[in-house]
Amino acid sequence: MKKQVKTNAARLLDRDKIAYELIPYDVDEDDLSAQHVAASLGEDINQVFKTLVLKGDKTGYFVCVVPGEEEVNLKLAAKVSGNKSCDLIPMKELLPTTGYIRGGCSPIGMKKLFPTFIHESCTTQPYIFVSAGIRGLQIKIKPEDLISEANAKVCILF
Q1: What is the pTM of this model?
Q2: Neighbours of 65 (CB within 10 A)
Q3: Would the pLDDT of 82 be above 80?
């Protein structure tokens, strides 16, 4: 049995006494999609949320957390974040900006606390999964606890 890795996101949840579970899954370097994660976990894709980092024309970086099969509507994301326009950041900016890599980007524990927006569908789920901050590890958490920890605003993003 491999020793369970404590990620920065897990340490922050521990510090704030928030209940969660760390759930490992098999990584496929050729398929880092949320669909693959959901299938590996045997969970509903609507409960496996992906974390996307965007940059707005006015406010700079911000984070959107959406169900795995969905795409962020950039117009809606710009509007909720106080921007006229926004776009996903280039992959090469992800690690230096957040401290995380593609396929392992958690909405908790980034280098800075960026404005975070989570799709309202999370509130219909008893729990959701988000990256724990490394590939191969998810955090199972109640949506309200994630919203609180990430200081996220619940909104429509697609």
Answers
A1: 0.95
A2: 27
A3: yes
